[in-house]
Design brief:
With 460 residues, the chain is an alpha+beta fold. It is 28% helix and 24% strand. It is built from 13 helices and 19 strands. Helix 7 packs across helix 10.
């Protein structure tokens, strides 16, 4: 079987680079695929899936390589790497953009759409490929208004377990589109192109950023937590604990809020409630003014450096500030390195979700990212993240699969009903289990609902 791209079998020159060279997390996994197919286009993907079928191999897929747990690197599988597939198109009559899965959301899709006067709720980190981002749900810019990025996927082109390239949309193969909106690394197909509903580019994006000392955590969190449900949906508030502004000192708290609006006057109106911050006189700094997605992405890239090792965990929660503050203080005061950070991301008010696989969210999202360089620190930092998140998850509702590693801690990421439906579709579409599913620790239960009460009582 011939390919336009390259296929590298284990033991051949170039195997190690093909295996993990595009894995963003420098903490590379000890898992070894049978081969890596560096696909040049859809024909290669089709041929690769058929080759795997003929040889009895499972198939895993890599788009951008940003999965913290390196979901795509699986023992003895054929890893279909679509990193060379980077096409983008835009149809001005429909407002639909199409993009290959390895297209970088911030670095490539944003400027492409901006040139057409359009926007899409793409990811906050500019180098993330849209493939995994969209499959996992897609927490992106203007998400409180436009919803999850996957809600704005109008159609997909996908290679199935039979090695057939088909279109899935609301009219045909709709169950595959349903699954692609939230199944994450458990999706049973290779998506070769996403068709995205875009929006007119808001001409006035504004940020409002306050810097506070960690000592101000309780009043700051209490105030923004109460204010959150009343904020206009274009307003996106995040409290980030970080050491970057002063690496040698204690962490600071950044209340960073953005709003994508039609006019500067509208931005001023929707951000006005933030001017009433009751502890404004205690702020270390306050900046506000125009910004762009490109500028915001640059700041995200600085906080998420390349060639570093990462340990990540998260929880959705409906718990309010008074319950969360002691746990967040314990966590945020211990940020172990210069780049490590943790966020409280306000998501309320809740709304009915569309009918799609994605099905777990809450009032707020808490995620923690340990970032380091020395392999000797791997276990210490990974355990630090998981231990703190376990205590927070006692007050939680589940996780966002994009910021988890089920080999360390399993939690709910889909509603039980949606997981059952997903597995029913898998049984029809991939009856022989050709595609790798979720990577999880031996003996752990997928999508398990932890005993929140017991964990709360045992938390320190």
């Amino acid at each position: 079987m011939s390919f336009k791209g390259d296929i590298v079998w284990r033991g051949q020159p170039g195997y190690e680079e093909a295996r993990v060279g595009r894995v963003f997390n420098a903490r590379r996994p000890d898992r070894y695929p049978a081969a890596i197919l560096l696909a040049e286009g859809e024909d290669d993907v089709v041929a690769g899936v058929r080759l795997a079928r003929d040889r009895g191999l499972k198939v895993s897929v890599r788009a951008g390589g940003h999965s913290w747990a390196a979901w795509s690197v699986r023992d003895d599988a054929l890893l279909v790497d679509v990193g060379r597939m980077r096409e983008m198109t835009f149809d001005p009559e429909t407002g639909i953009a199409s993009a290959s899965p390895a297209v970088k959301g911030g670095a490539e899709l944003v400027p492409f759409l901006t040139s057409h006067g359009r926007a899409f709720p793409g990811g906050h980190c500019p180098s993330v490929g849209i493939g995994g981002f969209l499959l996992q749900g897609g927490q992106g810019w203007n998400g409180r208004k436009y919803g999850w990025a996957c809600e704005n996927v109008a159609a997909i082109d996908v290679v199935t377990a039979d090695g057939e390239l088909i279109r899935a949309d609301e009219e045909q193969n709709s169950e595959l589109l349903w699954a692609a909106r939230g199944a994450g690394p458990g999706f049973f197909g290779v998506i070769t192109r996403f068709h995205l509903q875009t929006y007119p580019l808001p001409p006035a994006m504004t940020h409002d950023t306050w810097t506070f000392e960690l000592d101000d955590l309780e009043p700051l969190l209490g105030w923004i937590d109460e204010l959150l449900p009343s904020l206009d949906r274009v307003v996106e508030p995040v409290i980030a604990a970080t050491r970057l502004p002063r690496p040698e000192g204690p962490p600071v708290l950044l209340l960073h809020t953005t709003a994508m609006c039609e006019t500067a006057e509208e931005a001023e109106r929707v951000l006005a409630p933030l001017r009433a911050c009751p502890i404004a006189d205690r702020a270390v700094a306050h900046e506000t003014g125009p910004t762009t997605v490109e500028q915001e992405n640059e700041a995200q890239a600085a906080q998420n450096p390349e060639h570093h090792r990462y340990g990540v965990d998260c929880t959705w929660t409906d718990a309010r500030a008074a319950e969360l503050a002691p746990l967040l203080r314990a966590l945020w005061s211990e940020l172990p390195t210069k780049h490590s950070f943790s966020i409280w991301y306000g998501w309320a008010p809740s709304r009915p979700l569309p009918d799609m696989a994605f099905s777990v969210e809450g009032h707020a999202y808490i995620a923690t990212y340990a970032i380091w360089t020395d392999p000797a620190d791997d276990e210490r930092h990974r355990s630090w993240v998981v231990d703190h998140t376990t205590r927070l998850a006692a007050l939680g509702k589940g996780v966002y699969v994009g910021d988890t590693d089920f080999t360390r801690r399993s939690d709910r990421f889909l509603s039980p009903e949606n997981l059952r439906r997903l597995e029913q579709i898998r049984a029809r579409r991939d009856p022989n289990g050709r595609f790798c599913s979720y990577l999880i620790a031996d003996g752990a239960e997928l999508n398990a609902e932890p005993d929140r009460r017991q964990r709360t009582e045992s938390a320190p």
